[in-house]
Write a structure and sequence with these properties.
Helices cover 14% and strands 36% of the residues. It is mostly beta strands. It has one domain: SOS response associated peptidase-like (hypothetical protein yedk fold). The radius of gyration is 17 Å and the shape is globular. The two termini are 20 Å apart.
Length: 235
């Protein structure tokens, strides 16, 4: 799963990176502890602008048919195995796909003696998650929301922490994911680059990230793995 991630890039940096119009207009501040229901930038294709845009959306997809936006609390992840057929996700998968920029993501490993140890998965330049977006409208109210796709974990280090991970897209698939190039369902849902685990850094980080109110770059700094069950073999 992916229930927490970091994104320290500015709106301008993301606009330049994805060749997109910056619609966050300085309102976005870097965050190292993005949790479901938080606002975060996504990159999507805007038909009215005929261009890519970087825009803030709330994490947790709210379908147009939902009577209450609170449903998004449970819809922050979509499984790659069922996203094309699920009632909640099949329509945005067909027409409203987004890129979700990130420095990396957190996962928690259950410890033999009880409790959980957080780890941060990252690589130079960050990662980009496959996402979906929706617009929920009631009267004058409009809510843009998104979800992050997940897939089975890849590689020994990731599997040792959690059995699932976010669907990380390689740059060569960005255009197809945004609907700018033709691609069939199999191509869109091919999964991350098999070489991805080789390029990931796995950091054992402090437990402060477990509190959603905690924020700052210190959350992604590695702590000494030490000895015993908290350390991952080979990490």
């Amino acid at each position: 799963m992916c229930g927490r991630y970091a994104n320290s890039k500015s709106g301008g940096d993301m606009a330049a990176l994805f060749d997109a119009d910056d619609l966050v207009a300085g309102a976005w501040a870097p965050k190292w502890n993005i949790a479901p229901t938080s606002a975060a930038p996504v990159v999507r294709r805007s038909e009215s602008r005929a261009a890519r845009v970087v825009e803030e959306a709330r994490w947790g997809l709210v379908p147009p048919w939902a009577s209450d936006p609170g449903i998004g609390v449970r819809m922050f992840n979509a499984r790659i195995e069922t996203v094309a057929t699920s009632k909640a996700y099949r329509r945005p998968f067909a027409a409203r796909r987004a890129l979700v920029p990130a420095d990396g993501w957190y996962e928690w490993r259950k410890l033999p003696g009880g409790g959980k140890q957080p780890y941060f998965f990252t690589r130079p330049g960050g990662v980009v998650f496959a996402g979906l977006w929706e617009s929920w409208n009631r009267g004058e109210a409009r809510l843009l929301s998104f979800t992050v796709l997940t897939c089975p974990a890849m590689g020994e280090a990731l599997e040792a922490v959690h059995d699932r991970m976010p669907y990380v897209l390689p740059p060569e698939r960005f255009s197809a994911w945004l609907g700018e190039e033709d691609a069939d369902e199999g191509e869109l849902l091919a999964g991350p680059d098999p070489a991805l685990p080789e390029h990931l850094e796995v950091r054992r980080v402090g437990r402060a990230v477990g509190r959603t109110g905690n924020e700052g770059p210190e959350l992604v700094r590695p702590v000494d793995a030490g000895e015993g069950p908290n350390a991952l073999p080979g990490v």
